[in-house]
């Protein structure tokens, strides 16, 4: 079963600051991520370092590494929703 991918309004603003080819890569990767998402897939990505649980102010959120960009998301298991709150270059992602 695939997860629904939702974006906060801030993500649209984030994506406008990024080159078109990178935006296409990011959106394609997020769609594939949501389609393939499951406990086993998430564990595999965590082990490889592509996904990381965040701490501190971002506790409860996860970071997905997409080349030099980061997508910060939260999952809502009961509704099978992955809610992306931020997409930014890695140097700006946590500001």
Please, could you describe this protein's structure?
- This protein is α+β, with helices and mostly antiparallel strands.
- Helices cover 37% and strands 31% of the residues.
- It has one domain (4-89): RelE-like (YaeB-like fold), CATH 3.30.2310.20.
- It is built from three helices and five strands.
- A hairpin with an 8-residue loop joins strand 2 (51-53) and strand 3.
- The longest helix has 17 residues, at 20-36.
- It is globular, with a radius of gyration of 13 Å.
- The mean pLDDT is 90.
What's the CATH topology name? YaeB-like fold
- CATH arch. level architecture: 2-Layer Sandwich
Q: Give the biggest beta sheet.
A: 5 strands, mixed
The helix tally amounts to: 3
Please state how the strands of the largest beta sheet are arranged side by side. 1-5-4-3-2
Distance between the termini: 33 Å
Strand content: 25-35%
| CATH homologous superfamily heading | RelE-like
Order of helices and strands: EHHHEEEE
Report Rg. Answer: 13 Å
| Number of separate strands | 5
Structural class: alpha+beta
Q: How many distinct domains?
A: 1
Please give the share of residues in helix: 25-40%
Assembly form of the protein:
single chain
CATH class bucket: Alpha Beta
What is the topological layout?
Layout: E1 4-7, H1 9-16, H2 20-36, H3 39-48, E2 51-53, E3 62-66, E4 69-76, E5 81-89
